[in-house]
């Protein structure tokens, strides 16, 4: 897929001063910026596709999006995970309309072109009507050229020559991520299906908050924290006032977490299930007392997670003013059923679509978006200056970290965003894109 004609790209430097912590609001609602994000962020970044546990046998599939491009993720006959553009090469309709399932063939419902698990066009009705030298091999599904996995998390990238997923995460991000997905030697699995809901608000508002914003917790979630409070008088001290760290990656990822020797899981059943001595041995004291539990994180650009709630989610962009949240409950494979269920219920209560925390966050993002068309509003910059100058290597937590209350990871997120937005992507610089190579 190579754009026939690229529209004029904008230099976004005047809209984002990442080092100075100033952001212009048009990056959240300008249609041109949004189109450029599709071309220069989503068409070249590692995007979360699905979890390994969603595929058990060849033909199992799951449909999702990369940016706004519809994608089929499936397991082929050799048990490799493959991803294809979910659009018929004939007249373009989706060849798979189900959310998930199992199949031998993706058959288009418009005229009946049928594609196998390798994405090849296997049969078409009335093929004799095409010229003799017409070859169905030239009309297979467009394949995502780069699919890689990290401990069960499967990501795709349209750039065949992209830096590997592992390098793009970096050892530092993996340290934090492992505190969530590597507690169990057996690994993790997702429970049930995907929870999906739409919100008014640009996708970055959510991605940025999960990277950097511990600051809102006490204010935005005051009533929710009151409900969970053991005394009924306010949040647990380890939530309200504990110190903590915030990590910012040179690739735009971010994570924040309180540090507390008594860090623990809020769901009682889950807390009692864990053998903390084993976890300390496996992950180290620093991780158990920090990023393992009450934290938040974003893997640039649009994948976020919450370790204590077992929540992994994608912020799918749906135009500049809308996002669709897709959230899964992720649990350790070895957990007994009742513990998995306790984690699932805790997840729903707190960060499900109507969870007591989730609803507060969505309300804030929609509020920001609702007023963003005002002319003066749109010309008044936003502040990301908390903690400027206190980023450093602290000798305990890997990579660059700052105090927990900080916008460091937000600045890091927008530094990466600006860099990609201002740099031509593979489809602008190569004469022939990888995904087309075999066809001609
Ligand atoms: Fe798919 Fe015609 S659009 S077969
Ligand atoms: Fe929140």
Q: Structurally, how many domains make up the residues?
A: 2
Strand order of the largest sheet: 13-19-18-17-16-15-14-21
* SS-based class: alpha+beta
Main sheet record: 8 strands, antiparallel
List segments where confidence is low: pLDDT < 50 over at least 5 consecutive residues.
436-440
* Overall CATH architecture of the largest domain: Alpha-Beta Complex
What is the CATH superfamily classification of the largest domain?
Answer: Naphthalene 1,2-dioxygenase Alpha Subunit, Chain A, domain 1
Structure description:
By secondary structure, the protein is an alpha+beta fold. It folds into two domains: about 45-145, 3-layer Sandwich (Rieske Iron-sulfur Protein); about 170-420, Naphthalene 1,2-dioxygenase Alpha Subunit, Chain A, domain 1 (Alpha-Beta Complex), CATH 3.90.380.10. It has helices at about 25-30, 30-40, 165-180, 205-210, 215-220, 220-230, 235-240, 270-275, 275-285, 285-290, 335-350, 360-370, 410-420, 425-430, and strands spanning about 15, 20-25, 45-50, 60-65, 70-75, 80-85, 100, 105, 115, 120-125, 145-150, 155, 190-200, 245-250, 255-260, 295-300, 305, 310-315, 320-330, 380-385, 400-405. The strands form five sheets. Strands 13-19-18-17-16-15-14-21 form an eight-stranded antiparallel β-sheet, sandwiched between helices. A four-stranded antiparallel β-sheet has the order 6-5-4-7, with no helix packed on it. It has a three-stranded antiparallel β-sheet with strand order 1-2-20, covered by helices on one side. The protein starts with 15 loop residues before the first strand and ends in an 11-residue tail after the last helix. Bound molecules: FE2/S2 (inorganic) cluster and fe (iii) ion. Fe (iii) ion binds near residues 216, 220 and 361.
């Amino acid at each position: 897929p190579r754009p026939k004609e690229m529209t004029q790209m904008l230099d976004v430097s005047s809209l984002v001063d990442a080092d100075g912590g100033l952001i212009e609001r048009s990056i959240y609602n300008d249609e041109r910026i949004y189109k450029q994000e599709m071309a220069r962020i989503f068409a070249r970044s590692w995007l979360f596709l699905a979890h390994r546990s969603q595929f058990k046998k060849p033909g199992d599939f799951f449909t999702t999006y990369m940016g706004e491009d519809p994608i089929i993720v499936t397991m082929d006959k050799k048990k490799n995970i493959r991803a294809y553009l979910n659009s018929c090469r004939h007249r373009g309709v989706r060849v798979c309309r189900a959310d998930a399932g199992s199949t031998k063939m993706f058959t288009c419902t418009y005229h009946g072109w049928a594609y196998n698990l390798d994405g090849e066009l296997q049969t078409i009705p009335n093929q004799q009507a095409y010229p003799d030298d017409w070859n169905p091999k030239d009309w297979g599904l467009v394949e995502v050229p780069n699919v890689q996995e990290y401990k069960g998390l499967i990501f795709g990238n349209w750039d065949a020559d992209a830096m590997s997923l592992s390098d793009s995460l970096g050892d530092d991000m993996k340290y934090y991520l492992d505190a969530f997905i590597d507690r169990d030697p057996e690994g993790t699995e997702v429970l049930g299906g995907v929870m999906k809901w739409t919100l008014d608000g640009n996708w970055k508002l959510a991605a940025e908050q999960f990277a950097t914003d511990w600051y809102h917790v006490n204010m935005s979630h005051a009533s929710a924290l009151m409900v969970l409070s053991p005394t009924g008088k306010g949040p647990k001290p380890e939530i309200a006032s504990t110190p903590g760290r915030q990590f910012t990656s040179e690739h735009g990822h971010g994570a924040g977490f309180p540090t507390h020797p008594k860090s623990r899981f809020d769901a009682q059943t889950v807390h009692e299930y864990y053998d903390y001595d084993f976890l300390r041995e496996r992950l180290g004291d620093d991780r158990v007392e920090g990023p393992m539990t009450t934290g938040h994180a974003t893997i640039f650009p649009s994948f976020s997670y919450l370790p204590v709630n077992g929540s992994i989610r994608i912020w799918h962009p749906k135009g500049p003013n809308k996002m669709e949240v897709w959230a899964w409950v992720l649990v350790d494979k070895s957990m007994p059923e009742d513990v998995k269920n306790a984690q699932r219920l805790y997840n729903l209560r707190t960060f499900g679509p109507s969870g007591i925390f989730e609803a507060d966050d969505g309300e804030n993002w929609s509020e920001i978006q609702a007023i963003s068309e005002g002319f003066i509003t749109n010309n008044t910059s936003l502040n990301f200056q908390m903690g400027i100058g206190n980023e450093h290597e602290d000798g305990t937590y890997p990579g660059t970290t700052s105090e927990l209350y900080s916008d460091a990871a937000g600045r890091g997120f927008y530094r990466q965003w600006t860099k990609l937005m201002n740099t031509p992507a593979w489809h602008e610089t190569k004469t022939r894109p990888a995904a087309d190579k075999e066809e001609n």
